[in-house]
Write a structure and sequence with these properties.
This protein is mainly beta. It is built from 3 helices and 11 strands; from the N terminus they run E-E-E-E-E-E-H-H-E-E-E-H-E-E.
Length: about 200
Amino acid sequence: LFYRNEIVTNHTIGIKTGNANASHYFSVNYTGTKALQVGNDQDKINFTSNSDFVLSKKIKLQFGTRGNYFNSRINAENASNMKPYIPVLHNGQYVNEHRDISQDYKELLQENGWKNWDYNRLQEQRNNDYTFQSHTYAANLRFIVEPVKGLTYTLQPNYEKRFQKEENLHNEKSYYTRHLVNQFTENADLDSPQIVEHHLPK
């Protein structure tokens, strides 16, 4: 439920063609990782393309592109500190793991309209939705001119674009959300579970 054998998959394709006046090379690599902790996965793709042209004895042209795509999901819950006698499932239902406040008080609060304060790390793992994505694309063009032997002029414009996106979402069923709503729910006093005001949307 929480751990598995780590699996890394790697695939690479490379193609090279050309003649005396032009040569081309292209390669693409994919690496997929299913990490030791269930819920943690990665996908990586890299590509490279290069072309060389001999326009004349004195002029050469080189063109190259490269890029990468990275997608990571980090949704695992740490189970290394679990007590060995605490079950996480019973007849397909999540079993509460005592956390933060006493179970009797949790039940009293819930009877008075508070969010369910039960915690189950397997349920939390399945509700987690943390993703990180990044893309990078680059291109370069290179003119090489040798008007006389031993004298070379090089013109090289470059272009690069990067993109990153990170999201850490918690749905209303997750303990994180329920706990946060309860933390910002005001009661009359510590001895009374009666709700005075919700400071976050229910």
